[in-house]
DNA sequence: ACAAATATTCTAGAACC
DNA sequence: GGTTCTAGAATATTTGT
């Protein structure tokens, strides 16, 4: 019996990492399955005709009246996030109908086959600690807020207030700097264009610009190249 | 010749597609700002007291009654997705209150500063600095030694960390923007100087510049004035 | 108690329109 | 640029030993 289940599962999840069959399904799946099966709430959430998907007919009522009784929230979006975490997919369009191969009417035992996603990082619980936080020095030196590490709730609170203020100030200054940068760019683009006109309209004699020596023209070209580089970043 | 033409286009295109103030903000921002300002719907969505954030008091009613009149849907989650796309952040918890530095009561013109975020724009909000398990444990050890409101200390600590990260990112971007601004300025100053030399050395005959008509000289003077105004701020 | 697993929240990616 | 569906990431809570 157990062997059969494991075999079947191995076939289905051939490309993924192996998994161990759970003794009891996650409570989210149990609660949701019970909810869908429950006849009194079929006007809010129910199976489709074949019992292969379930449909949320009234998301507002589900969120307001049912979710809080099962979970610690009343947000439809949190419910959907959980469904996606367990691999459910919304089917078709226009209504909140979800499907999972192992989520079917009357087949409660199948829930054990459903795996929560993103559990793949449970392999090395402590080896991550060693090196990953070494280079926070770079951005530290930019901020005046890094001078001391607060050791109490009160100082943390004060620092938070200050950080928020600094943050707002930085946003404003950044916006203003970007604005000036762009004004500069526009101004220069216009100016460059007008100079180009002057240069091109200047009379040429014997293949030489009358009043613009070679070095000036080279300057102009370098300027154009620099402008091009800068404008692509600003 | 072709080079200069391309150059001009590069400038103009860059200017219009990046940080230059748009003529009209995206309709989403205009509609949302109008919606928040509208007094009759203040029981559903309104400014906070200071006019620095807005609060959705009744998400269900907003989705059902208001969203369809402005957009082509009636999903609260789609509305939230748009807010995030434009850089709004949910503030605090427990209610749908959103903030953006450039989204304020009565300041409709500020909307032009708001940039829609795209895939390649993942630098500012994202940070390389990862929370490590060690740091987490430090916080927990700290909080468990606190006699009063340990969870508050922990969340304050998390927020503190996030603020510092954002602060550092902002500083980096600000420094980079200022640097570009200065490079632009230097480039332009040099260019301006060389042009001035050319202009002043040009022969004058009967009180008239030989090859620089009056309008060009006026342009040049206006340009210089604009430049000096900008350089004093940058 | 501790670390892992799960749950909840908020934000972003990506496909499609 | 907008809408939809799914996933990432941070935080909070529960569970297993």
Note the topology:
Two copies of one chain form a homodimer.
Chain A: H1 2-12, H2 27-37, E1 45-47, E2 53-56, H3 59-70, H4 76-85, E3 89-90, E4 96-99, H5 137-140, H6 153-201, E5 204-205, E6 208-209, H7 214-233
Antiparallel strand pairs in A: 1-2, 2-4, 3-4, 5-6
The structure holds a DNA duplex (17 and 17 nucleotides).
Can you put this structure into words, describing what you see?
Two copies of one chain form a homodimer. By secondary structure, the first copy, chain A, is an alpha+beta fold. Chain A folds into two domains: 2-113, Orthogonal Bundle (Arc Repressor Mutant, subunit A), CATH 1.10.10; 172-234. Chain A has seven helices and six strands; from the N terminus they run ααββααββααββα. Chain A has helices spanning 2-12, 27-37, 59-70, 76-85, 137-140, 153-201, 214-233; strands at 45-47, 53-56, 89-90, 96-99, 204-205, 208-209. In chain A, the strands form two sheets. In chain A, strands 1-2-4-3 form a four-stranded antiparallel sheet, with helices on one face. In chain A, strands 5-6 form a two-stranded antiparallel ribbon. Chain B binds a DNA duplex (17 and 17 nucleotides) through residues 26-28, 71-73, 75, 77-78, 80-82, 84-85, 89-90, 93, 116-117, 119, 122, 125-126, 131, 133, 137, 151, 154-155, 158, 162.
């Amino acid at each position: 019996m157990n062997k059969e289940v494991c075999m079947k599962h191995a076939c289905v999840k051939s490309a993924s990492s192996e998994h161990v069959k759970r003794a009891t399904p996650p409570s989210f799946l149990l609660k949701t399955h019970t909810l869908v099966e429950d006849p009194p709430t079929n006007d809010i959430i129910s199976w489709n005709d074949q019992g292969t998907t379930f449909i949320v007919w009234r998301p507002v009522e589900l969120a307001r009246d049912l979710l809080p009784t099962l979970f610690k929230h009343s947000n439809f979006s949190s419910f959907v996030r959980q469904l996606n975490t367990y691999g459910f997919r919304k089917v078709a369009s226009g209504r909140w109908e979800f499907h999972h191969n192992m989520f079917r009417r009357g087949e409660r035992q199948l829930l054990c086959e459903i795996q929560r996603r993103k559990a793949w990082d449970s392999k090395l619980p402590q080896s991550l600690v060693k090196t990953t936080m070494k280079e926070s020095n770079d951005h530290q030196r930019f901020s005046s807020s890094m001078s001391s590490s607060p050791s109490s709730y009160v100082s943390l609170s004060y620092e938070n207030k200050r950080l928020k203020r600094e943050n707002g100030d930085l946003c404003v200054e950044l916006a203003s700097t970007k604005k000036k940068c762009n004004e500069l760019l526009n101004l220069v683009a216009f100016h460059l264009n007008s100079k180009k006109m002057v240069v091109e309209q200047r009379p040429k004699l014997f293949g030489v610009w009358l009043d613009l020596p070679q070095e000036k023209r080279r300057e102009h070209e370098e300027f154009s190249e620099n402008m091009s580089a800068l404008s692509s970043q600003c």
